[in-house]
Amino acid sequence: MAPAVSDDALAEFADVVLRIGREVDPHGPHALDIVPLTGTEALVMRWVHRNPGASPSAVAESTALQRSNCSVALRSLVAKGMVERRTDPEDARTVQLHPTPLAHDSIARLHAHWAGRLRAALGGDEGGLDAAAALLARIDDGLRRS
């Protein structure tokens, strides 16, 4: 049985996603005044922001980073004032990671930037956005599992 979608169509889809990623990159042509992060730091920051109170080992496992690479990124994020390490109130041997006010501010500016760029690109016609977001989330999930 032939695939429902051609390899060429899937490759073009991936290429479009990459082009969009370059256009909304906060350090690209439309740079923002936010704390600059490496790709690994951004991956870790995204996880900590969405899962405040996570342990360093949970972050490493969830992001599929080697613990040493995750530790380097976390040290850098702490040094940049983006992540705060706190002792778990229920187990003093455990550390919890939390985004700082600076992180919340940078992320809010980043999200506003993304929303503005996409809204302008769509020219007011945002129909189908929910379906597109669901499809991309499904692809993201599938890629992470494989």
Automatic annotation (TrEMBL):
<dbReference type="InterPro" id="IPR000835">
    <property type="entry name" value="HTH_MarR-typ"/>
</dbReference>
<protein>
    <submittedName>
        <fullName>MarR family transcriptional regulator</fullName>
    </submittedName>
</protein>
<dbReference type="InterPro" id="IPR036390">
    <property type="entry name" value="WH_DNA-bd_sf"/>
</dbReference>
<dbReference type="InterPro" id="IPR036388">
    <property type="entry name" value="WH-like_DNA-bd_sf"/>
</dbReference>
<dbReference type="InterPro" id="IPR039422">
    <property type="entry name" value="MarR/SlyA-like"/>
</dbReference>
<dbReference type="Pfam" id="PF12802">
    <property type="entry name" value="MarR_2"/>
</dbReference>
<feature type="domain" description="HTH marR-type">
    <location>
        <begin position="10"/>
        <end position="141"/>
    </location>
</feature>
